[in-house]
Amino acid sequence: MPLHPRGTFGLALRAARSIAVASFILAIPTAVTAASVTNRDDREHVLTISEGAGQKGETLKPGQALDGICSNGCLVRLNGDDANPYELQGSDMTSIEGGKLYIDQAPEAVQPSDPGVLDPR
Fold first, then answer.
1. pTM exceeds 0.70
2. Most Cβ neighbours (<10 Å): which of 8, 73, 81, 111?
3. Is the dihedral of CA 69, 67, 108, 101 positive or negative?
4. CB 100 within 8 A of CB 80
């Protein structure tokens, strides 16, 4: 039995709506993870964060956390120590303990696709 013209139009309209909704969903930016630092010391620390050509300073009080410090990787210096910067990846979760920066959680390690092949790291 042939479709009624209104039925064909309704089907086309539903298809167009589905495409529009899918296009809208794809246009929504995904959440970007960024590095964080938590001060677990009993004194404040000054961070100097260098990402790309930019640089900014932040002071972290005891127990304070700083989220979203860099999304593509950056260098972090503690208390003006220019000789020993810490290199962070965009999703590293770190903490300051004893005046040093430690990684609490790093990005998932990439596993080799062939279990018989040794990881070059």
1. no
2. 73
3. positive
4. no
